[in-house]
Queue: 3 jobs
Job 1
Amino acid sequence: MCYAIPGKITGLDGRVATVDYYGEKRNAYIDLVPDLTIGSYVYAQGGFVVSRISEAAAQDILKDWRELFFKLQETDRRLSNDPKTLYERANAIRQKHQGNSCCIHGILEFSNYCARNCHYCGIRRDNKKLTRYRLDTNEILEAVDYASNKLGFKALVLQSGEDVWYTDDKLHEIVTEIRKRCPVLIFVSIGERDLSTFKRLYDAGARGVLLRFETSDEALYSRLKPDSKLKTRLEMLKALREMGYLIITGFLVGLPKQKGKDILESIKLTAELGAEMFSFGPFIPHPETPLSGAALPSLEQMLKTIARARLTTPDARILVTTALETLDKENGARQGLMAGANSLMINVTPLKYRKLYDIYPNRAGVEDDTNSRIDSVLKLLYLLGRAPTDLGVALETASKTMS
Ligand code: SAH
């Protein structure tokens, strides 16, 4: 199973390698993997080389992939031709600026304990009906090992509620051990912690953070997150980016009393924060929260938000979130990908825990075995001419952001 294809290093300039994929060049940082030279074959994710592989193994994979690689590009070009509607225009812009590569990150939800009490969220502290769970260090390492070494994921998000049971030392050990055993790019999504915690995790080899700012409207933020401030979160996101982290951030669409203007502002703010990936999803009311009676946003509103985000930021990676898939389990992912999105996440949480990560009801994919979910995602991507691979940052974009 392959989520990224190997590339060959054809140039090295300080911390940055040029990696060649069938003639297409991408840039990637090399600091996670020692002793790389020109001619090394590597896997890169999100602009970082995550592992090296032997030339023989790389050649085998590249031979198998070559025909499919170009065929998918052709299908994608054909499907993005002659755009007329808003969605088609967004899709054509995606094709032009980002090509057909589609990131597929795995997500491991390792604890549903949460110290916060956000009004929209089903794992909020005051939801006493929820059975709480935590994966211990060994369970996390086992799940990550399976996702990486058996299923082939090259990028994984480790997500939890805000749970200080995972001390800095524990988190540090988890990230260190993963880097030792698994060729993956690690994103952490653990809410707000001290910057010193994130610094330790960066030094241990984590390179990404997923942290949404939820809404750009300060008053709405304070109402929905009674114990926190938008300003603190934004400052944290900026500091994390300065630390060198890739940032995945975004917002909720359809919150009660959210203004249309907030969605446009939130798209802008995501871009200003330098997000490597946009993550925004529909707000889905949870029965055990103060917002239980609220209305759901429509699929159309979500697709429009994706399309607008694409039109304003042509180079973005835009995620089809699980929440969007939950709005329309049959067609949500396909429609999102055809309205400007180009990334997906697959849940790799052990099935026995998955249902308990109950941020909102009826989440798509909670019942599915990960293997069958991978199969259906790949089928969809091939149908749309998308390559289930992350080819790193396009050379031009990379030279802009890396200079
Ligand atoms: N503790 C982490 C992870 C929180 S849960 C953090 O603070 O970043 C991950 C995301 O789920 C949240 O950022 C929020 O945007 C989303 N979420 C929570 N409740 C939701 C709901 N009812 N509908 C849709 N998304 C929700």
Note: Confidence is low (pLDDT under 50) at residues 394-403.
Job 2
Amino acid sequence: MATNGEVAAAFEELAVLSEILGANVFKVNAFRKAARAVEALASTATEMDLAALKEIDGLGASTAAKVIEFGKTATMTELEELRAQVPPGLKEVLAIQGIGPKTARALWTEAGVVDLATLKTAIESGAVAKLPRMGAKTIENMKESIAFAESARGRIRIGEAMPLAESIVAELGKLAFVSKIAYAGSLRRGRETIGDIDVLASSTDPAQLMDAFCKRDEVARVLVHGDTKSSVLTKSGVQVDLRVVPLDRFGAALMYFTGSKEHNIVLRERAIGQGMRLNEYGLFKADANGVVAEGAMPIAAATEEAVYAALGLDWIPPTMREDRGESAAFAKGAKHPELITVADIKAELHSHTTASDGSMSIDELIDRARARGFHTIAITDHSKSQFQANGLDEARLREHIKAIHAARARHPDMQVWAGSEVDILGDGSLDYSDDLLAELDWVVASPHAALKQEPKVATERLLKAIAHPLVHVIGHPTGRIVNGRPGLEPAMNEIYAAARQHGTALEINSHNMRLDLRDSHVRAAVDAGCMLAIDCDVHGPGDFDEIRYGVLTAQRGWLPRASCINCMDAAALEGWRKRKR
Ligand code: DGT
Ligand code: CA
Ligand code: CA
Ligand code: ZN
């Protein structure tokens, strides 16, 4: 059964492809609208009949029929036709920051660009500069983005790796001859980018398991097909390794292949210091010369807990296995840090409705927040400078505040705040007057433009926003995009000190493309005594699910619950909000 996300993605691709092919704007918009409509649907689109689909706001006769077709064939005839007309390499051109479908079309039809390589040639030859609206600055930006994209290639975002690994583990795990299966490596440690996906399994029929793995739909090429290890490359260019290990050694193998390498080294040295040897087969007793007897049975190997315990340690969460002090913090008897989990998050404090660039109404957003078990939702649409995101001018914001406050009566069980994600302008001033900001319950201030400032200028800019008495949270403080753009590089120590001094929280934006603050920032901010927010920057219903990536990042930064405003109970959070009102 196709999910609404898959149907919406198909419509979005239809929109992009038809725009590249020069279709009229009504047609392009119809596809975009259909994508939004399906994405926002509470029930599964492909389970509905044609009549019901046509009733949905945003779907017409033709798009509704496409939903039906997608339900039956997992694709759309028109989509396949358009795909066949557009050079496949244009996808990577579109992935460059600042190149949308319109620009891609111009590059393709007027400068012969069909992929990244031809784009680079066309820039060098001056062909791109001859196109309309291609100033020297735009081209310079394009060149930087290309260089950045090339350097980042090879590591994929966790948001791409996780669903892939989870489907492999879930589906292979159902096979009768698979007794245990889990993903390991950097993915299990929750890193923001993943080099390759490592999967471990125990099986009563390893050969059959390897066959099943190598024959999966997403596999483009089998790199290695062995009895204990196979490696494949997926169609999207991701390498996945599967290793089969004995069931009674699964814990030791999982520890070894989860890493990090640095963490493993610390553990191995610890083992040696205690007269033992640790490897992927287990923890073994060594003799006076440090030698393990041939064929010796391990002291511990079946579970991670057993191996850690035999080393005198409590089980260390994978997100903390980076040799950043965890072996001391988790020594038996030490009071070790407790990690935040998704279940601890009780509020979403950065969200968008249809008033700016979100896909949900105020009521739907509140309903979805309640369904997550949250007690508080802050509605923070974009401010006026974000015109491309339909940012609200003063008059519209005042109307929006009224509408949000009116919604409270319909949702007395929820704490609903009228807020704004107000732009931090290039000079650190905010996009609305203080008078208007004071009318809001909640203010997230975020940098969106001018993200290539000198570090000194960027520092001053953020410090000004942090010190503003009406600002509660700094949203995605650096503006970086994972594998996309580096963002601001302010003097972070000054940022943490000011945030602590002014009681302004710093956000971990959970979206897997942002993860901003990143893990190392979180750790330093916690050490500096800051409060942090973990938010999803919700634009559509699916965005609530991004919280897992924000929580993994928080764990990697050793963020305690007490330092996270989203973990407060409703009254405490309200009290925290009011300090700035
Ligand atoms: P990645 O794939 O680059 O995102 O990072 P990892 O951490 O997944 O690294 P990967 O796939 O090369 O290896 C998986 C784990 O296996 C790694 O985290 C630790 C373990 N490992 C691999 N090679 C070595 C090694 O030479 N020494 C030790 N101690 N552990 C290793
Ligand atoms: Ca890996
Ligand atoms: Ca690997
Ligand atoms: Zn936002």
Note: The pocket of calcium ion (ligand 2) is lined by residues 185-186, 195-196, 198 (CB under 6 Å).
Job 3
Amino acid sequence: MNDNIAQVPLDFHRYDEATMLARATEFRMELARRRTVRHFSDTPVPFAVMEQVVRAAGTAPSGAHKQPWTFCVVGNAGLKKQIRDAAEAEEKLNYHGRMSAEWIEDLKPFNTGPDKPFLETAPWLVVVFRRPYEPEPDGRKHPNYYVNESVGIATGMLLAAAHHAGLATLTHTPSPMDFLSKLLGSPANERPFLLIPMGLPAVNATVPTLDRKAVQQLLVSYI
Ligand code: IYR
């Protein structure tokens, strides 16, 4: 045991087996209703909700508990427009040459393209940053560990928290994403990881029919 750091009693809820199964099933069914949404309403969502959702993401485990993430929540209309313009400029190059024919073909069911109106329509854009290192006071770079894994887990928790709160999300990957660092003035040790519009779906929002892997396809068990 580590005797340098004070230990405290674990706050843990124990359930009987029936309750455990009921809770696991209920949560799975709630998550199963989450869909990536590409048509947003401009209905405002209180910042207080965003704060709770980001705090939920911040409970994620991370390498050596370095918490190598920053969540930038953008609601300012002017900034959203600048982000949209810059993202669309990159996406034009992607869709008209940088992406393979195979990739374009794989995206057909999702009706994506270089136009990204949701970057202005959604009330909030959450820019997730990964922090590969922390600057030391003497200017040295102190590395973080398992940064992609940690930020990936935190982002999954962010999406689940948003869904639970009744917010739709889109995991958007404009590429390359350097423009976000410039527009948001982020420090050198923050690198954009994902751009996630959040808000309510447009009233007429549709989503493509898609199958999820059946349990037999995604679960391998040795019991
Ligand atoms: N970044 C582009 C292309 C794109 C790529 C994948 I993989 C997607 O699942 C969806 C889109 C865009 O955002 O349009």
Note: The chain has a mean pLDDT of 96.
